[in-house]
Amino acid sequence: MRPRLDPVTPDGGGLDDGYFIERAQRGSTEAFEVLVRRYRDRVYRVAYRLVGDRYAAEDIAQDALVAAWRALPEFRRDAAFATWLHSIVLNRARNQLTRTRPAGPLPAELPAAATQEPADVVQSSFRDRALRAAIRDLPFELRAPLVLRQFEGCSYEEAAAILDVSVSTVRGRIARARRALLISMRDWR
Amino acid sequence: MVDAPLPGRPGRGLPDRVPCGAMLDDLLEQVADSTPPADLAHQGTCPHCRAALAELGDLWTPVRRLAAVDVTAPPTLTSTIMERVHAMAAHGWHAVLTGQPGVTRIAAWVVAVIARRAVAGVPGVGTVVGQVTPPAAALGPVTAEYPSDRPSRAQRGAAAGIGVAGRRVVVRVAVTAAAGIPLPALAEQIRRRVSAEVSTLTGLIVAAVDVEVTDLDRRQPSS
């Protein structure tokens, strides 16, 4: 006997994604809301890492998840839902970056370590900003795989599936992105 | 701090290899991914590799710190998204993107009516079952809605469920068939007719037509 959806806990309890995907594909907004709750942080985080701006990231996350609802009937469950969702986020972020190229100063993000001396705090702050600027300045084709691998913990295979390129291509792009960051970090020594 | 393994400072470039011949990209991947070395015996004794790894580890620390920062979605994100989803589900609109300018929207129940009329014209179809009102959840993320003031009761009897997403539409029809008609052939004919009519009249892409034969109509002679 299949478990009842109602009343559904906000995070869907212990039921797996497949159960809610199937229900959402049939039109259940409740089931879709469970998926939103499960994936909102991940979607937002990827968007934020890609565009470097919280407001733009919120717009992208919102549009991506609404687009996912629209496209859900076409989702084939032989693919991983997270992979499919990530690809939507990346497309939205790419479109957003094509329309607007952020160039302003980046806000502080990392808290200073308590043991740091004031001079070190200043240098650390500049270095962190430089790092985020370096990420932001990467071409999207390098930034996307870097974010997936380095910040989201995707495997090379997962990143390749999301980006719809070969694993060797992903490895090459991530290596180039890492080199670019390395040069940036070296300059702040 | 070990500086030697990254020659080229203060220039912009990085070497492809460290002096022992090991690839810099491999060492950087090892550091960035926190994976074990491919050649443990060599790295354990090679001063060039050890120095390079120490240097790379130090340079990579800010990236690790940045990756460890907890980034969470704004608390209102879910409610904002669900408001839009509920609005889409309630309206049942099917958006057709046109050229320039503007958007054409076709209500899902309009597609249902077109589908019903298409099915009614197929030889061997007895009735398009009027009493079947599939639960919304069975139809798709955006289902045909029949507001009380429109359309007519006859239209409500279309028994055609419409799931829409972007320009694609999935149609579900429930029919009774004349006894003696080969049902697979009948279903195929219904699919072709519905696909052609809906595509021609709406410009939508018919992704699938699901046919449910609910009964045999023994009063209607087969043709």
Summarize the structure.
The complex is a heterodimer of chains A (189) and B (223). By secondary structure, chain A is mostly helical. Helices cover 68% and strands 0% of the residues of chain A.
Greatest interface (CB-CB under 8 A), with counts per chain: A-B, 51 and 47 residues
State the end-to-end distance of chain B.
Answer: 91 Å
Q: Please give the oligomerization state of what you see.
A: heterodimer
**Portion of residues in helices of chain A?**
55-70%
Q: CATH H-level name of the largest domain in chain A... which superfamily? A: RNA polymerase sigma factor, region 2, helix turn helix motif
Using the coordinates shown, work out and report the CATH topology of the largest domain in chain A.
Rna Polymerase Sigma Factor, Chain: A
Kindly name the structural category of chain A: mainly alpha
Largest sheet of chain A: none
Q: Tell me the domain tally of chain B.
A: 2
Number of domains of chain A: 2
The name CATH uses for the topology of the largest domain in chain B is Alpha-Beta Plaits
Tell me what portion of residues of chain A adopts beta-strand conformation. under 5%
Count of helical segments of chain B? 7
Strand content of chain B: 15-25%
How many distinct beta strands of chain B?
Answer: 6
User: What low-confidence regions of chain B span 5 or more consecutive residues with pLDDT below 50?
Assistant: 1-11, 130-159
CATH architectural category of the largest domain in chain A: Orthogonal Bundle
Which overall shape of chain A is indicated by the principal axes computed on the Cα atoms?
Answer: elongated
Computed Rg of chain A: 19 Å
